[in-house]
Specification:
alpha+beta; BirA Bifunctional Protein, domain 2; seven-stranded mixed sheet; 9 strands; tRNA-bd_arm; magnesium ion binding; magnesium
């Protein structure tokens, strides 16, 4: 038995020394130390050994197992060290190479334009106020002098959730909510996303952004409105910018006007950008209608005010000379990085 064990150990050691991979080493371990290995078979044959010799043979098998396991561990450790050194050699990092520059976030053209508009009006003493995008029909239409079945509703065809809840078509409801609070005077702008049932094209989208302004105080006149918008245009488009008011109709203001500014591309001389007119339309405005004041709990005999509204995308398109509104929403970083 002793000679048999010695032969098993010698053969196992010989194969271990000749092995060239961890997989081969594992095969040797299974062949000699596994459940069906050579040493296990020796233990199974203990029944053929004389009872008085069994303790000695058992000790010899255990010693053989220990010797083989120690040798396996030694060779495995050497293999793993060599493989690790080879991997490190292959993955050597040249620390003198320039690092990869991480991509940084970039403000969207809409955000840049909005921050500039807010800066201008905050500098005039206005407050920035926000409101819900899901709005009641009352605040979106009725409180703005647009009763049920009014033709103006067709112009702002929108998305209804229920009979009296909808996605707002303008940020004017924010103004109504502020007027209802009764904290006068009011000087505010209300930027935010609005929704209308429009087809997507170069100048329209079912979801876009507006900035609406409101001033309510005693003795507010159309002259205050004109002076405010003239100053706004100069700060936004340049000191030489002039404004022109054209009569218009809005249900919630009276009198009402559309506002044009001199083309900042040609200075009012006429060019392709302004279609030869020298003027570019930017917003609508007017004096707050007395009915709107009354419905919000404000006495029109004591207070007056003006309101205006401009599309944020329109400002961005004009200011940065973008000819297609869809470019703002296609998330093409090649386009967005230009701003």
């Amino acid at each position: 038995m002793k000679e048999k064990l010695k032969a098993i150990i010698d053969e196992a050691l010989k194969q271990m020394e000749a092995s060239e991979s961890l997989d081969k080493l594992n095969e040797i371990r299974v062949a000699y130390l596994g459940k069906k290995g050579e040493l296990t078979n020796v233990l199974k044959s203990m029944k053929d050994v004389a009872p008085e010799d069994r303790p000695v043979v058992g000790q010899m098998v255990n010693e053989a197992r220990t010797a083989l396991e120690e040798k396996l561990d030694t060779i495995r450790t050497a293999f793993e060290k060599r493989l690790r050194e080879e991997q490190i050699a292959k993955e050597t990092i040249d620390v003198t190479l320039p690092a990869k520059k991480p991509m940084m976030g970039h403000r969207h053209p809409n955000t840049i334009a909005l921050e500039e508009v807010e800066r201008i009006f905050v500098g005039m003493g206005y407050e920035v106020v926000e409101g819900p995008e899901i709005e009641y029909d009352y605040y979106n239409f009725e409180a703005l002098n647009i009763p049920a079945n009014h033709p103006a509703k067709d112009e702002q065809d929108t998305f209804y959730i229920t009979g009296n809840i909808l996605l707002r078509t303008q940020t004017s409801p924010v103004q109504v909510r502020e007027m209802e609070k009764g904290k006068l005077p009011i000087r505010m702008i209300a930027p935010g996303r609005v929704f209308r049932s429009d087809e997507v094209d170069a100048t329209h989208s079912p979801s876009f952004h507006q900035i609406e302004g409101l001033v309510i105080d005693k003795n507010i006149t159309f002259a205050d409105l004109k002076g405010t918008l003239a100053e706004f245009a100069k700060q936004l488009f340049g000191e030489d910018t002039k404004v022109k008011f054209r009569p218009h109709h809005f249900p919630f203001t009276e009198p009402s006007a559309e506002v044009d500014v001199t083309c900042f591309k040609c200075g009012g001389k006429g060019c392709r950008f302004c279609k030869g007119s020298g003027w570019i339309e930017i917003l609508g405005c007017g004096m707050v209608h007395p009915n709107v004041l009354r419905m919000s709990g404000i006495d029109p005999n004591e207070y007056s005010g003006f309101a205006f509204g401009v599309g944020l995308e329109r400002i961005a398109l004009l200011k940065y000379e973008i000819d297609d509104m869809r470019l703002l929403y296609e998330n093409d970083t090649r386009f967005l990085k230009q701003f």
